[in-house]
Amino acid sequence: MNQEPLLQVRDLRIAFRTDKKNTFEALKGISFDVPANSTVALVGESGSGKSVSSLAVMGLLPEQTTVIDPASSIRFAGRELLGLPLRERRALCGKDIAMIFQEPMSSLNPVFTVGFQIGEVLRLHMGMTKRAARARTLALLHEVGIPDPERKIDAYPSQMSGGQQQRVMIAMAIACEPRLLIADEPTTALDVTIQKQIMDLIARLQRERRMAVLFITHDLGLVGEIADRVIVMRHGEVREEGAASQVFGVPADAYTRALLHCRPSLDARPLRLPVIDDYLGGRIVPDQVLAQRVRGTTPDDQPVLVVNNLAKSFWLREGLFGKREFKAVKDVSFTLGRGKTLGVVGESGSGKTTVGLTLLRLHRASGGSALFEGRDLLAMSDREYQAYKRRIQIIFQNPYASLNPRFTVGQILQEPMRIHGIGANEMERTALARGLLGRVGLPDAAYGRYPHEFSGGQRQRIAIARCLTMRPEILVCDESVSALDVSVQAQVLNLLQDLQDEYGMSYIFISHDLSVVKYISDQVMVMHHGSVVEMADSDTLYRDPQHPYTRSLLAAIPRGVL
Amino acid sequence: MTMTTLHTPMQARSPGLWTLAWRRLCADRVGMAALAVVAAFLLLVLLSATGMLASDWEDEVAVNYAPPTFVGADATARALARAQLPRATPPNAFDPLAAELAELEAQVAQAHPPVEKRTTLPFGADKWGHDIVKKTIKGGETSIVVGLVAALLAVALGTLFGAVSGFYGGWIDDLFNWFYSIFTAIPAILMILTVAAVLQQKGVATIVLILGLTGWTGPYRLMRAEYIKHGAREYVMAADAIGASGWQRMFGHILPNVSHVALVQMSILVVGFIKAEVILSFLGFGVPVGTVSWGSMLNEAQNELILGKWWQLAAAAGAMALLVTSFSLFADALRDALDPRIK
Which of A394, A419, A448 lies closest to B11 in CB terms? Predict the structure, then answer.
């Protein structure tokens, strides 16, 4: 196979018009190849231009605002795609090039059955009859591993799980036997065990059908197992390109090295996670041994929060008068030590977030107790609890949603202090707020700005600063770093660690990401369907998992190159 | 933007979302033109309300139905003008009061020197010889004030009910929803007439109350939906976690984030209420005698039109059409500026 590669991108330069005068250059002249019958991974953080590249190949960029440099070239199987008439491009895209997207839930039309939606592709592109299309759809559903395809073919998307929906999307994509499959973050919205299954499925289909796969992801660790070649992108430029073994084994570029190391790994726990700047600035050289942190609980830890048999049920309406109990959290008990971190892991629907929200009384508990200084937080009246609110705080997952967009950062930080009477007057509160901004690593000028002017990582710092104004003793971090890029995630984790060292706060760290939980936690609680299946010191749990569910979770973690 | 330069450099504030919305509005040419027309109307209302303009609209300055200047005075108008001039009556030798009457007439003539009634006016005159331009301005004052105040009342009620209903949910929400359903089950015009009959008083305040009390349903429904949506947002949960009370969350946190909905509703209602006032006055449920509004002008115009005197109708209808169209265009531009995602 030494002829021209299947997809050849040369000097692709794309800018977006932001308003009448300004443009934003998303791709600064990138070139890469996707050879036939191989998997190429395009890796980068948000804003790196990886998705723009794939959309450009598909011709899905908005025409009014996109400026593609005339010197750019995208060749597919010897044909130049740019400048091809829209009709021919469309015909090519559904058939020879297919794409799967990140969100299977919003990519499928909820009012048609999955069988109809796959069959439509077959009828349109392959000219099949209804009967032939249905037979082919059944075969496809079988191929992508949908259990009981005869029944599921007439199911609506909402009747399937996220993983099954993504399988349907893949079935739709491979229906016309494409020569190139573009997968844009196909597993980001899925749980770790489902992610593993989907990755295996894509790898198997690639082998069996001998097609080319362009796999786009932000997670370098994920692609090591399936990619032949890896392209690392940053700020619209290709930083490194090479065979997977080379990129993972002996990365040539400092940025690639940083990406590989700023994500917490399962077998090391440095005092501070290295960040991108450490590598780019040359403060960390390759193979430098970092000081390690020891974690774990001891019998003489001073307990700060004792939770016993916590339960939370939601009532679902059923029939005209009936209701059904849905137990989101069942019988959860744990003890949180002062200055310690309890990690809570589980997949979506495991009840881990509900535990956090119930402890803060954002949900009303159905049973159990949470003893804080001998008082039950869950049983006291709202008036009594008001005084305790400043002592137990929460940082949410989405920093874009958890800050009021109409408040300036100053107002956001002042509000809790005003409510709880912290600081004698406005001037003192302002000084406190400005001091905290500095503490979480934001410039003083941030005080008068609005949240929309900050990046995700910066906003999460603002949310942390808001909690710090109250000097809480317990901080619940509900997927607080999950929405952040790997490099930013490392910075925020370092900040949380520094703050714990400084103020002696206790954390309840809720996350679906087992590596992050392993890094930050002293003790880990594994939840499944609302119950705790296993709880142990983090090193013990990861070294010697007892429960089969824990084992399956750990086995699903992508481990980089094999 | 003036809003940003107002602050001292020490307290550097970046443009807030309102400033950004204003900038987007400024870039909308149609919107800005509409805003200019609306602003001009509001200026006229202000001048007329303070008595600087059209305060003398009730003076009978012209002959009955004096036609507009650009049409030109017709023969009947000229004849009328002559007929209305005080005629020197031939002296009656047998009148015992002749001397006194002559003296009285002389006094009156001195105090109010007889003016010749004008035969034409810029946009004509009505039945009593009032200047139509002034009358339209004065009528606009009533109509626009009614529209604005009633819309304000309706949106305030709708926002309050919607906020409480959407934020607390449960039986409170059910209660308001039942109340809403009852209100909307009655045909709108019947509802208005019912309230008018209950209030039993003719006046501008009555019309404002009628329209305000019947018009809150639309904003209520929208604000309720917004509050349900925002109540579950993380920033509201975060506010709950830091200890902000229910009212603080409802009006300190959520309201600034949904106020654009109320604002757009208000601009739509203003248009609707100006039209509703016109209809009410036309039906005779509107402004009392002695107050002029566009509605009462149109009411008079129906009889005039038979006589071929079209100018009062044209003036009132034209002014209303211009304002309503501009206000609608402005409301559209406002909506786009405040919520650029949907454009």
Answer: A448
Quick one: tokens of A226?
A: 């399936």
Nearest chain B CA: its distance from A84 CA (Å)? 30
Say which of B12, B14, B234 has its CB closest to residue A402.
Answer: B234
Question: Residue A277 sits in which domain range?
Answer: 254-294
Instruction: Choose the mutation target among B24, B234, B255 for the interface with A, i.e. most A CBs under 10 Å.
Output: B234
By Cβ distance, the residue of A362, A450, A463 closest to B14 is A450
Distance from CA of B191 to the nearest CA of A (A): 34
Global pTM reads 0.80
Residues A286 and A394 in one domain: no
List the pLDDT tens digit at each of the 562 positions of chain A. Answer: 456 789 999 999 998 887 777 888 889 989 999 999 999 999 988 888 888 898 888 888 888 888 888 889 999 888 888 888 888 888 887 788 988 888 777 888 889 999 999 998 888 888 889 999 999 999 999 888 888 888 889 989 888 888 888 889 989 888 888 999 999 888 877 788 888 888 889 999 999 889 999 999 888 888 888 899 999 999 889 999 999 888 888 888 888 888 888 888 887 888 888 888 888 877 777 667 777 888 888 888 889 999 999 999 988 877 777 888 888 899 999 999 999 999 999 888 888 889 999 999 988 899 999 999 889 999 999 899 998 998 999 998 888 888 988 888 999 999 999 999 888 888 999 999 999 998 888 888 888 888 888 888 889 999 999 999 999 999 999 988 888 888 888 889 999 999 999 999 999 999 988 889 999 999 999 999 889 999 999 889 988 899 999 998 888 887 765 4
ipTM: 0.80
Residues in B closer than 8 angstroms to A420, CB to CB, are 242-243
Residue A106 lies in a domain: no
Domains of chain B with CATH codes? 15-53+131-342 (1.10.3720.10)
Please give the Cα distance from A354 to A333 (Å, whole number). 14
Cβ atoms of A68 and A82 closer than 8 Å: yes
Question: Do both A397 and A531 map to the same domain?
Answer: yes
Sign of the C-alpha dihedral, residues B230, B231, B237, B239? positive
- The tally of domains found in chain A comes to 2
Residue A318 lies in a domain: yes
- Residue A340 shares a structural domain with residue A261: no
Contacts for A130 with CB less than 8 Å, ≥ 6 apart = A119, A123
For residues A280 and A310, state if they share a domain. no
- By the 10 Å C-beta count (0-12 exposed, 13-18 middle, 19+ buried), A256 is classed as buried
Q: What is the DSSP letter of A227?
A: -
**Chain B residues inside the 8 Å CB shell of A403:** 235, 238
Does A495 reside within a domain? yes
Q: Nearest to residue A66, comparing CAs of A53, A79, A76? A: A53
